[in-house]
Specification:
By secondary structure, this protein is of the alpha/beta class. Helix content is 35%, strand content 12%. It has a single domain (7-220, 273-308), classed as Alpha-Beta Barrel (TIM Barrel). The strands form two sheets. Strands 3-4-5-6-7-8-9 form a seven-stranded parallel beta sheet. Strands 1-2 form a two-stranded antiparallel sheet. Residues 18-322 form the NADP-dependent oxidoreductase domain.
């Protein structure tokens, strides 16, 4: 069964479902995950029209004795692709050459040899001969981004990749990359409480003709009101001030989102997603958020947000949510350069 989720064209002619699915939610960083249930959730997403699936080579439970990308999230998604490859637009990423979620920012690599070997490894794990959207997850700062994107462009020319994307890049990095090869999408954290990309990166994406793919559009679950101290304690967020020390103070943001949802008969998650789409319209570029979940019911709930409409007054009130936020968006176990705002 195919759902009624509409499609949208990002940059470089890449057409995807209007909402995507963030595969990282199915991995261990948010606590133990049942792979059978994860696969059922993925099938449910595609059944109901959410066909843009996002993963990365570094997502998943690290193998014993391995320091590099885990790859287990790609292997999980390969089970979906085995029977439904033609229905799915698959995005994956490379560039983080070490483990995430542990103290100390993992190393990054963007040299030509690594670009090629990482792509070949992802193709094998995904069980496909082409990746629809291949992102540079984090750039290696001492290698010009033009060099890395040039190597990525070779993969397009060889038919191994269809479109290129960049994650957590600055406006200047994006412009430099787009001069080498068209960029279909920029991925960065963007939500009601994480809006730094609006200053420079979002306008630059519009300028170069790229779409925007916000990750953590629900504030890593916080904006839904479903996060509890107990859930946070069992995840990679357990040491994050925004979620722990400032948990009570940041409930004011949740209360605002919830109150507007009550006015229009929508859930907090749907309000947060509807606000992002309206921001895309305001900035004049396609926006495809990729919320993650382990629940089929939440997949449906998120897709139903496409029917939610916010009034100008409600948008204005939500725009003020960022003023209520305590704590930074950068995760404490990474360096300050891990997010684009630190390099602007």
């Amino acid at each position: 069964m195919t759902g009624a989720v509409p499609t949208v064209t990002l940059g470089d002619g890449l057409t995807v479902s209007r909402i995507g699915f963030g595969g990282m939610a199915l991995s261990h960083v948010y606590g133990d995950s049942d792979p059978d249930q994860a696969l059922r959730t993925l099938h449910h997403a595609v059944d109901h029209g959410t066909t843009f699936i996002d993963t990365a080579d570094v997502y998943g439970e690290p193998r014993e004795g391995a320091d590099g990308p885990a790859g287990t999230n790609e292997e999980l998604i390969a089970k979906l692709l085995a029977s439904r490859r033609g229905e799915v637009q698959i995005a994956t990423k490379f560039g983080i050459a070490g483990r995430i979620g542990v103290p100390g920012a993992p190393p990054t690599r963007g040299d030509r040899a690594y670009v090629r070997s990482a792509c070949e490894a992802s193709l094998r794990r995904l069980g496909t001969d082409v990746i629809d959207l291949y992102y540079l997850h984090r750039r290696q700062l001492d290698i010009p981004i033009e060099e890395t994107v040039g190597a990525m462009a070779e993969l397009v020319a060889e038919g191994k990749v269809r479109h290129l994307g960049l994650s957590e890049v600055t406006a200047a990095e994006l412009r430099a990359a787009a001069a080498v090869h068209p960029i279909a999408a920029v991925q960065s954290e963007w939500s009601l409480w994480s809006r730094d990309v609006e200053a420079r990166v979002v306008p630059a994406a519009r300028e170069v003709g790229a779409g925007f793919v916000p990750y953590s559009p629900l504030g890593r679950g916080f904006l839904t009101g479903a996060m509890t101290p107990e859930r946070i304690a069992g995840s990679m967020l357990r040491n994050e001030p925004r979620f722990v020390e400032h948990f009570a103070a940041n409930q004011h943001v949740v209360d605002l989102v919830r109150s507007i949802g009550q006015e229009i008969g929508a859930t907090p998650a749907q309000v947060a997603l509807a606000w992002l789409w309206s921001q895309g319209e305001a900035f004049g570029l396609p926006v495809v958020p990729i919320p993650g979940t382990r629940s089929p019911q939440r997949v449906t709930e998120n897709a139903d947000a496409l029917r939610v409409r916010l009034s100008p007054d409600q948008r204005s009130r939500l725009d003020k949510a960022a003023e209520l936020v305590h704590g930074d968006r950068n995760l404490t176990f990474t360096s300050k350069n891990w997010i684009s705002a630190a390099r602007e």
